[in-house]
Amino acid sequence: MVRKARLTGLALAGALAGALLTGCSSDDGSLTYQTDYSNHQPLRVVGYPSTGSLETVQQAVWRLADGDSDGLAALAVDDAHADATARNWVKAFGAAAKGEVTADFYDEGSVRQVVVLYFAKSGQTKEIEARIGEDDAWGLTLAEPDPAKATAKPTWAPPKPGGSGSRTSGTPSGG
Q: What pLDDT shows up at residue 125?
């Protein structure tokens, strides 16, 4: 009788362990994010991103580094020019995105945020806009089908990240 109780206890422990392991497994989105995060250089951040704008910009830099124009286009909030713009961006910034990239976030970022990407490897800069789309999900404005416009350096951005003091979320500075 003792032997049967022991087996039942072991079976119960095994079932419980299996249930716990299954319950702790990641969903596909989380696993993809973790894999992307570990396979790419860390994104340096200046300013005050929101959770949504940061995740979107980080994914955009990863897609650039991977040369994945389809994945970049999938981040678009409007499909009108997403494919052409994504191809332009990958061609212009893909190689540089494999190195150190700093994202300088401007404004407060509750629904929209302008971001300047600084690519250390090439010295290039790129202004992008992360915003909430009609489906209430964060994405990118990909509206630069003209290669010259897609690669144009922002005229207003400082030469180095944080050089103009990225605008904050409205919190007063100083004391």
A: 97
Arithmetic mean of pLDDT over the chain: 82
With CA atoms as reference, report the closest residue to 106 among 123, 128, 86.
128
Biggest alpha carbon–alpha carbon distance for the chain:
83
Rounded to an integer, what distance in angstroms lies between the CA atom of residue 141 and that of residue 127? 11
Contact yes or no for 52/140 (Cβ under 8 A):
no
Confidence of residue 34 (pLDDT cuts 50, 70, 90): confident
Q: What is the pTM of this model?
A: 0.77
Alpha-carbon gap, residue 89 to 54, rounded angstroms: 19
- Evaluate whether 44 touches 161 at the Cβ level (below 8 Å): yes
Task: Name the least confident of 29-33, 80-84, 115-119.
Answer: 29-33
How many CB atoms neighbour CB 161 within 10 A? Answer: 22
* C-alpha dist (Å) from residue 166 to 29, 54, 104, 111, 153: 31, 15, 7, 17, 18
Reading the block at residue 21, the tokens are 């392991």
User: Quick one: DSSP state of residue 136?
Assistant: S
